[in-house]
Amino acid sequence: MANSVAFLVALVCALSCAPVSFGGRVPAPPVAYLYPQFYEQSCPKALDIVKSVVAEAVAREPRMAASLLRLHFHDCFVKGCDASLLLDSSGTITSEKRAVPNRDSARGFEVIDEIKYALEKECPSTVSCADILALAARDSTALAGGPSWEVPLGRRDSTGASLSGANNNIPAPNNTFQTILTKFKLKGLDVVDMVALSGSHTIGNARCAVIRQRLYNQTGNGLPDVTLDPHYANQLRAGCPRSGGDQNLFVLDPVSQFTFDNSYFKNLLAYKGLLSSDEILFTNGGESAGLVKKFAASNEAFFEQFAKSMVNMGNILPLTGSQGEIRKRCRKINSY
Ligand code: HEM
Ligand SMILES: *[C@@H]1O[C@H](CO)[C@@H](O)[C@H](O)[C@H]1NC(C)=O
Ligand SMILES: *[C@@H]1O[C@H](CO)[C@@H](O)[C@H](O)[C@H]1NC(C)=O
After folding, report:
1. Can 74 be counted among the known catalytic residues?
2. Hey, is 177 helix, strand or coil?
3. Which of 47, 148, 161, 225 is such that its CA lies 20 to 30 A from the CA of 89?
4. Which atom of ligand 2 is nearest the CA belonging to 175?
5. pTM of whole model > 0.85?
6. What is the 214 CA–ligand 2 centroid distance (Å)?
7. What is the CATH number of the domain that holds 92?
8. Dihedral over alpha carbons 323, 325, 330, 331 (to 10 degrees)
């Protein structure tokens, strides 16, 4: 029943697509409420402003494209794409930034602040922090040489955060294939999304702390991961000792670390995936390995699927209508 109502709403909205509020009674069918023209009247320059601040930030530091792309993912997998990730601890809020997947690792928050500041000057209390994250992820991908796509907009910002959600829902680099797939499925994403979106690791860095287990003790018996190329493994061990050096950085795609392309998938075929969670996409076999081969063979196929999967990810449980709020500052809820 609730489903058929939601379906009807989705259908109507697919045809006319104006923002609608349901007083929070009907669970949001994610896709329906968001549409690319959301700010066309209320803040026509919004998309250009986001793009230009992202471009400046990436020009200052090329890695920032990767860091901004990752923020959208870590936001969407926790309570939906609602900018919960951006909240600092204060009052009743315990920041998600303290969670294991984010601590010493999630970055780019100052760039989001910079974008928000510019948008508040242009059109106060209009553009949500959640939409900023979605746009910045798209612009970062395109700037790094990847695909571009129209970003459905109209998300609103949460008034809370979930530390436990951040710890439990974001996949870990030492999770099994099944665990990671389950975490994607819980968000309404499938194995195709999982493989395509993992292609984000064509840019950016990872710390020694997240590969050590793989280098020295994957089995729990003091043995390294046999699915890692032995020469590559030796290079990695040189920069990531058994203890110490936790923050030492490694490029996720040694072939072209700042370029968004399909070399990540080619690396997996050569057993040169940096994270265990990367390599298992290939070694697990089946549909997943088939997709790795397909994307390794065709940049075009990868780009096309990546754009679709980013829209899918961006549609995870958005707050819409009168839910949540438009934060004035992304780090704080408005009532503080
Ligand atoms: C499939 C499950 C995934 C796992 C297990 C995973 C895990 C990780 C880990 C462990 C790091 C390094 C963090 C650190 O050094 O502490 C990382 C970096 C990164 N991840 Fe993922 N990730 C996954 C999927 C994704 C998705 C879906 C996206 C984006 C759509 C993404 C984008 C990135 C980017 C761009 C970086 C580099 C960030 C930077 O250099 O600042 N990852 N990921
Ligand atoms: C995965 O890594 C985390 C964090 O380092 C650790 O606590 C956990 O025991 C590891 N899990 C497995 C299955 O090895
Ligand atoms: C390997 O991991 C297991 C299980 O996490 C742990 O009990 C053991 O002490 C580790 N061994 C080495 C050599 O690091």
Report:
1. yes
2. helix
3. 47
4. 13
5. yes
6. 11
7. 1.10.520.10
8. -80
Please give all residues whose beta carbon lies within 6 A of any atom in ligand 1, as ranges: 63, 66-67, 69-70, 73, 105, 107, 171-173, 180, 194, 197-198, 200-201, 203-207, 210, 252, 275, 277
Co-location of 103 and 226 in the same domain = no
Residue numbers of the domain that contains 228: 177-311
Instruction: Please enumerate in sequence order all residues whose Cβ is within 8 A of that of 167, keeping only pairs 6 or more positions apart, or say none.
Output: 99, 100, 101
Q: List pLDDT tens digits, range 22-35.
A: 344 445 555 458 99
Q: How many domains does the structure of the chain reveal? A: 2
Residues 224 and 306 in one domain: yes
Ligand found nearest the CA of 172: 1
Ligand 3 surroundings by CB, under 6 angstroms: 216-217, 220, 222
Residue nearest to atom 2 of ligand 2 (CA): 174
Q: What is the pLDDT of residues 110-161, one digit of tens each?
A: 999 999 999 999 999 999 999 999 999 999 999 999 999 999 999 999 999 9
Q: Between the CA atoms of 112, 65, 277 and 284, what dihedral angle is there, to the nearest 10 degrees?
A: 130
Q: Is residue 32 part of a domain?
A: no
Q: Tell me the residue length of the chain.
A: 336
